[in-house]
Structure formats: structure tokens, C-alpha cells
């Protein structure tokens, strides 16, 4: 199956941008959740750790992710037209490291050390993820080094587990202020 919608190339504005090192230093203090974005099916699958994910709208249910244009997973999503965003729970930081290429599995397959099933599209859904959002690509926009994928959410589930957080180049778990 292939998905042929071309990515729209948005034009950057002409305003002078701040230098990238200053930008990256400040971005270290933007706390995020951590997801593993997957595509494919049980026979052919790709996946990458992605923190750039956010809700877009509830009606229609939609999210967006930002994926580097050099990413194997991003290329596979463009070809396939579907993806599943798996929000990691607080005990799944090792899975984030594997899917970021920070640690190899024994057999070289990023998927082999965790358990996967599927929701609607066939893209791998991580068992016990805090939440999973299974999507059809609604729109793709290339901007700078990244592609923004808008995902129309066709299925979602949650384990109600506490999510994992990332900021200042490290993984964190949360605790409520009023505990
Ligand atoms: C905490 C964390 C968050 C990341 N977030 C993103 C992201 O939002 N978008 C992205 O393109 N890469 C992100 N990465 C980097 C990719 O996970 C990494 O480059 C990965 O090896 C790409 O795999 P692929 O080329 O097989 O798709 C992140 C890495 C880490 C450790």
C-alpha cells in the first residue's frame, strides 16, 4: 500500500530567526511527554521516539507530530499514510532509549523487547502505554528540517498509567503538587 499525497512545503517567514543554539538551550526547559511513533504492520514496521506531539482538535479528533525529514520512520509514514502514537508510561524510559537509537537490542530489532498489538490501522500499538492514538495522515507539511504530520485519530486507548516526562535532556516521572 502506498500513500501519495505530497508534503506541502511551507515558506519560512523573512523575519530574522534567533540562532539555533540559543533556541535549543531554551527548548531544554520545555517539558514534554515521550512517545514512540510507529508505522507499518506485524510484518514490516518502523518506529521512533518522538516528543514533538500535541493534541490538535477534538472534533475531528486529531493530533500532530513533528518528525525529522532524515528519519526512517518519517519516510515510512509518508509511504504508508498511517501511524500510531504510543505515549510511554513512567516505567518505559528504556523503550524510549531503544527507539531513539541510544541503545541497541540484542537482535537489532527495536520492537523485540516489548509487546505490541494493533488498534485499527495495523500500526504497532504498545501494550501498557499510557495512551495510544492510531491515525490516518490527514496532512503533511515540510518546514525546516522536519515534517509536521497531522493525524486523524481513528482509534485511541489508555491504560491510565502515569506518563513519562522529558526535559533538560533527561527522563522524569511526575508527582502532583497537592499530594
Ligand atoms: C526524548 C527524545 C525525544 C525525541 N523527539 C523527537 C521528535 O520529536 N522528532 C524527531 O524527529 N526525532 C526525535 N527524537 C530523535 C529520534 O528518536 C531518533 O533520531 C531516532 O533514532 C530516529 O529513528 P529513525 O530514523 O529510525 O526513524 C527524539 C529522541 C529522544 C531521546
UniProtKB/TrEMBL annotation:
<dbReference type="InterPro" id="IPR050268">
    <property type="entry name" value="NADH-dep_flavin_reductase"/>
</dbReference>
<protein>
    <submittedName>
        <fullName>FMN reductase (NADH) RutF</fullName>
    </submittedName>
</protein>
<dbReference type="InterPro" id="IPR002563">
    <property type="entry name" value="Flavin_Rdtase-like_dom"/>
</dbReference>
<dbReference type="InterPro" id="IPR012349">
    <property type="entry name" value="Split_barrel_FMN-bd"/>
</dbReference>
<keyword id="KW-0560">Oxidoreductase</keyword>
<feature type="domain" description="Flavin reductase like">
    <location>
        <begin position="27"/>
        <end position="173"/>
    </location>
</feature>
<dbReference type="Pfam" id="PF01613">
    <property type="entry name" value="Flavin_Reduct"/>
</dbReference>
Amino acid at each position: 500500500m502506498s500513500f501519495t499525497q505530497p508534503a506541502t512545503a511551507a515558506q519560512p517567514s523573512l523575519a530574522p530567526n534567533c540562532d539555533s543554539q540559543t533556541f535549543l538551550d531554551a527548548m531544554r526547559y520545555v517539558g514534554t511527554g515521550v512517545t514512540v511513533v510507529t508505522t507499518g504492520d506485524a510484518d514490516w514496521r518502523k518506529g521512533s521516539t518522538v516528543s514533538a506531539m500535541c493534541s490538535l482538535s477534538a472534533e475531528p479528533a486529531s493530533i500532530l507530530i513533528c518528525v525529522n525529514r532524515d528519519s526512517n520512520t518519517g519516510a515510512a509514514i509518508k509511504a504508508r499514510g498511517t501511524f500510531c502514537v504510543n505515549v510511554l508510561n513512567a516505567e518505559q524510559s528504556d523503550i524510549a532509549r531503544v527507539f531513539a537509537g541510544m541503545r541497541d537490542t540484542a537482535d537489532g530489532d527495536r520492537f523485540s523487547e516489548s509487546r505490541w498489538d494493533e488498534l485499527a490501522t495495523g500500526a504497532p500499538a504498545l501494550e501498557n502505554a499510557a495512551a495510544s492514538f492510531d491515525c490516518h495522515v490527514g496532512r503533511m507539511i515540510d518546514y525546516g528540517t522536519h515534517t509536521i504530520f497531522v493525524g486523524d485519530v481513528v482509534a485511541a486507548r489508555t491504560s491510565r498509567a502515569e506518563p513519562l516526562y522529558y526535559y533538560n535532556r533527561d527522563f522524569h516521572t511526575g508527582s502532583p503538587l497537592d499530594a
